[in-house]
Design brief:
Pfam families: F-box. By secondary structure, the chain is α+β, with helices and mostly antiparallel strands. It is 31% helix and 23% strand.
Amino acid sequence: MDYIRNKFPLLQKRPYQLSRNVYIQVHLCVLPAYRWRPPKHRLHRRPLPQEPNNQREHSPFDAQEHSPLLQLPIEILEMIADNLPLASAASLSLTCRQIIFLIGTRHITDLETSRHETLMFMSLLVHDVREHIVCITCKKLHQISLARTYTEYQFQGVPLATDPKVLRSLGLAAYAEGIKMVTLYIAKDLKYYHRFKDDLPSQQLLHYIMLRPFSYCLGRRYSTVQKEETEWRVHNGSVYIRTHQNFQGNCSEAGVLLFKICQHLILRVCTHRGRCFIVDWTLLGVKRLIWKGNHISLKLLHCRHCRTEYSMEFNHKKNRNEDCPYEVYLTTWKDLGQSLDSEEWKQHFVHGRLAHPQRLKFPKREIAKIFYGVNPYNRD
């Protein structure tokens, strides 16, 4: 202790501080001169204390309990809902529990009066529930994973993901109509309520609801077999469809076959004579193009009034017997456009037999190459 007093005069003036605490203070005064300090680049400043935020920030998942629309008066909320479409007003009432308590459920109950508004409301819900799709037949939401299960048991002519019980109630008329008008009768609702795009979910949905390959027998001895296959594609926002038909049979069973290429053209095949006619129902008269022979092959033609391309092949193995076999292959490619208001979509309809549709000019193989990546039948 004497040695420490001689070294530090300050401690000599206050001997009463010489205690255990003094020794500790002495060491604290001496050691800092030799204490190691880290480099400046390793020093980090302590963050300044922030004032506590009394107002809690709500996440988007709390929309059912808290909504910024609650700050508006009830009169303004009712005015907004009344000026919105019925499907949008019903969707607005479901955004928050307090809003549906203030506005009421009258917009949701009004959906039952209109099939169109109900499907539009379902299409709005699909944006939030992406694993579901809208069924146009039963007006309900189904899981997209169940779409494949439903399509295995449903009518082949109505390619919709729905309950098989609902489809059985449609009857045979809807089944036959779906086969003949698969490109127009069904695609109308699909395009309008699903808004297909180039993304993967849209492509999967098209794969689920497209017409599956199927075959059935006709004729007195069931020797005539017809096979159909349909494929959908989306390219640059437009919906394209390819329909392939294969008809096999005997001359004594069929006689005359009719194939609907589009609303303007009908393919008529006389099997026993080996002739093919393409009938044009537009303008004031009926025009016919005739091909003769046991083997007729039309590489790729197009309709002059709508964006439809088609190809046909006819094989007739003529012999002395009446039951000579034949085969007819018909493939059509159609461009349905991007929306129901587009000109491509309107061109697929005939507005009366006295109407004068305009003639179209588009490059050859423009529609068919969407399904093949290259120009089909290009042997040059």
